[in-house]
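S., here's the first fold you wanted:
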Amino acid sequence: MPPGKTQGVEEYEPKKFVNREKELAMIDERVLALRRREFVSQTLVSFWGVADIGKTWLLKEIEHRYQYDPTKANALAKPTCALYYDFSEHEQTVTAVLHQLITTITTNLSQPLLTDERKQKANQLIQTENVKESLEFILSLASDLVLIILLDTTESVNDEAWQDLEVNLLEPLLKSNKILLIGTGRNRVLRWKRVEVRRRATPIEKSEVSPFDLEATAKQLKNLGLSQKLTQELYDDSAGTPGLTTKLSHRNLELSEKRYREARVEEWNAYVEDIFEHLSQLPASFRQMITAVAPLRYYRSQALRLMLEKTTDYSDDTSDVFLLRALRKLDKKSHLVWWDDHHNAYVTAVAARRILNRHLQIENPTRFIELHSFALEMYREWAKEFQTSMPAYFPELLFHEATIYKSQRLEPDNKITVQNYLNLLDTMSPDNLDILQRRLNKDEELQDLVPKLYKQLLLHLEQLLEGAEAK
């Protein structure tokens, strides 16, 4: 299996595609501007995310949308031509990429853009390793149409090859201000070193490919021609990860209910091994760290240490210095953990965190409740001791309490004592209420978990802020 590729993923078909409106709108905006010959400052987009999240499907949809169509050319807007290259299936050299791009151009273009002279030149270039002339040929075409170069599975390229690609291919193309480059990979931060390249890159917080919500999962199953009766269960089992949803839905069709219960564990085990595979170069304890904090949405070294102390097979250092260094290394070396400026804490990729939790919940439900109960008490203690940090602790108190009830097949909205949380809001300063309001407004996970309570708390919070402003 090529690095970065996941087995059993459904072949892309336009009619099966669903969701990704935000990502496609980002691309549409840039393509439209380039078609009108307008300047676009960020012509490099790197879509990133964990395995099975749908990065290749997104790239294939972009390729489909912007395939060359001579009827779309007019005096005011240039036509488009999307060129796809998968690093996991082809050579990872500058000449190999250029040859493939030029081949795709000659296959897709027609008169009047692809003149006999240009076609002859293209055929000559494919037989040579002349990087300079190949680049000049591509750039000459960019005057007449919008070239959208799609680079898939970028994480499979080694550092040396990547540097060569950046210097001798990507930077010259980006400097033209006429070409849109879109890459996909698991790495959160690509290895851009050239100032000119980094200047044209879209911020990483705008290009994460996230899991589907329940509604998108239902639409995905419909587009695949599968039953939507089990949408909720499949959504829970896949954590909204579309590739895993597809594989689990097929398993569900093929197997009895009992056998499916066993098969989904096999799929989770395979998925966990896949996402942890790149950590093999790091100490084994690093994997234990990610697993230990899986119940937590946000954490620093202290929370990591407390969760590790609940892990019986962890025997490495638990000092703050060691754990902080480990977190920084995970941030730099993995696509699973990174520092989140908005929450001022480390986070684990949502899909990975949810699948690790779901796996534990099914395999060891008692342990699952124990860990979330421990996290709940941890936040309760911190909320008492550090009241000024309540905006950070409040959502996590609610999250872990609701998660415990839901794991017991109880409706969190009906079981949680609302007054306890209303009382907490009443003790908070206007500044902290304002911070909390902004956090809750962006917390889609909590909104899905306790929809009624979520609305009630936001309403009470708004009333408190209005009252404070009136004073």
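And the second, which I think is the more interesting of the pair:
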Amino acid sequence: MQYTATGYSKPLRRIFSFLYQPARRVEVEDDGLEVLRTAKRFESKVHPFFEETFYKPLSRLILSVSQKVKAIQTGHIQLYLSYIFVTLVLLLIFLRISR
């Protein structure tokens, strides 16, 4: 026998069970004789709370924004320099108005 990561994380899973919503299933096959078990299956699942709540929506947002920003990336250096020039002009106007 050896310890697995599941054994070390069990106390945390029990404390935060309201978030992780663990589910366990044990199946025992004994072919009619309880003493001679032929198979035993154990399955444990944890609901991916943080993944479903935070990471997936965040990744969808980042992917949608990157698809929209992709339109301004053409590969032409002159266009990139004009982006920089327009940004500098807008910043100077903004600074002038804010004073």
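Why I say that: The chain has a mean pLDDT of 85. The longest strand covers residues 23-29.

Talk tomorrow,
H.
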